[in-house]
Amino acid sequence: MSSHINFGDNAVMSGPDVVSTPLILSEEEPSFYYLTLESISIGNYKTLPFRSSKVSPNDQGNIIIDSGTTYTFVPFDFYANLEKTLVSLINATRKNDPSGFLKLCYESQNGTTINVPKIVAHFTNADIELPTTNTFTQLDECLVCFTMLPNDEIAIFGNLAQKNFFIGFDLVANKVSFLPTDCTKH
Asked: Domain range for residue 26?
């Protein structure tokens, strides 16, 4: 799947479904754009507060948004709680990723999707509901795997999590805007 990138007036996002969050720039790492992830909620059951002290001790700008990184990386402790919660809520057969890279995988019968609870990333001023296709990837017709991974060195909101969103970076107002969309139609 490919997407388009717009600049200038063509990049302005508006409408009732657009949500925006502050864009945090870092003098130490000027090539990265940071957002502040406050928590992730799973279904109606649990909200997991997000902390990433490696990136920012004051929790402002605690995760990089990066369209060049496939997966989303979060700290080990946060990931462990996320995985534990998902395992308790997903009624499917666990399987191992043959490569050993992805940590949480399930059997998928003939390419069908598994029943996954709603996952919402809560950024400052912006709640982003992540569709199942953004949080679980089909590795083959019998295997789906969670697209978030543990990493204590860096926190990244990767491109699988960003699928099917128009995302606008406003460097004048220092904000990032999200609009859910079907990218196959653009």
From this structure: 18-179
CA atoms of 6 and 81, how far apart (whole Å): 37
Q: Please state whether beta strands 37-42 and 46-49 pair in parallel, antiparallel, or not at all (unpaired).
A: antiparallel
CATH number at residue 28: 2.40.70.10
Q: Residue 111 corresponds to which tokens in the numbers above?
A: 């390419």
Beta-carbon contacts of 7 under 8 Å, excluding residues fewer than 6 positions away, are none
- Buried b or exposed e, range 12-34, using 16+ CB within 10 angstroms: ebeeeeebbbbbbeeeeeeebbb
For 147-169, what is each residue's pLDDT tens digit?
999 999 999 999 999 999 999 99
pTM recorded for the entire structure: 0.91
Q: Does 128 fall in a domain? A: yes
Is 27 among the domain residues?
A: yes
